[in-house]
Specification:
Layout lengths: L5 H17 L6 E5 L5 E6 L2 H4 L6 H12 L2 H6 L1 E6 L3 H10 L4 E5 L1 H10 L12 H4 L5 E2 L6 H18 L3
């Protein structure tokens, strides 16, 4: 595995997801990589930090890319992410014309894990990225990261439950 393989970028996404969790945010992290395999931008979920539930890393990547990259650079870039884009993030990805998406765990996996933990469904339906931005090259889930991502979400839900108890 070379230093800039997809596994390396996905490993960084997991690290960012862990950083988000450690800061009290939902555990998601994402990395934007150029066509020549340079990391251009990375972020983690910041919803709890800011009180803004739209502060997803994939959405921040779309905002950053729209401001800092040409249309051709955006189309040639890849977004690596710990979890499949939610509909909001998928739409932002499509609107700014970003390229390929590679994710560790799917929305279906996340919903299944949350269901096992008794977590109610969120306010927005979990739809596959391809349903929202057809024609985008999408790869995932990547099985080697499933257990680690699941554990982060389990720990996050446990932390939420304990911090919300009377």
């Amino acid at each position: 595995m070379n230093a800039n393989s997809p596994s390396t970028h996905l490993r960084r996404c997991v690290q960012l997801a862990r950083e988000a969790f450690e800061a009290g945010n939902p555990p998601f992290g994402s990395v934007l990589v150029s066509s020549d395999d340079r990391v251009l931008f990375e972020d983690r979920n910041r919803a709890a930090d800011t009180g803004d539930p739209t502060r997803h890393p994939e959405f921040e990547i779309a905002r950053w890319a729209a401001t800092n990259l040409t249309a051709d650079e955006r189309a040639a870039a890849t977004v690596f992410t710990s979890g499949e884009h939610c509909p909001m993030c998928a739409a932002a990805h499509g609107w700014v014309g970003l390229g390929r998406i590679v994710y560790c765990s799917s929305s279906q996996q996340l919903r299944s894990w949350q269901s096992e933990l008794g977590v109610p469904a969120g306010p927005v339906a979990a739809l596959p990225i391809q349903d929202l931005i057809p024609g985008t090259v999408v790869e995932g889930p990547v099985a080697e990261f499933a257990a680690e991502i699941r554990e982060l979400h389990k720990r996050y839900q446990s932390w939420l439950a304990s911090s919300n108890s009377p």
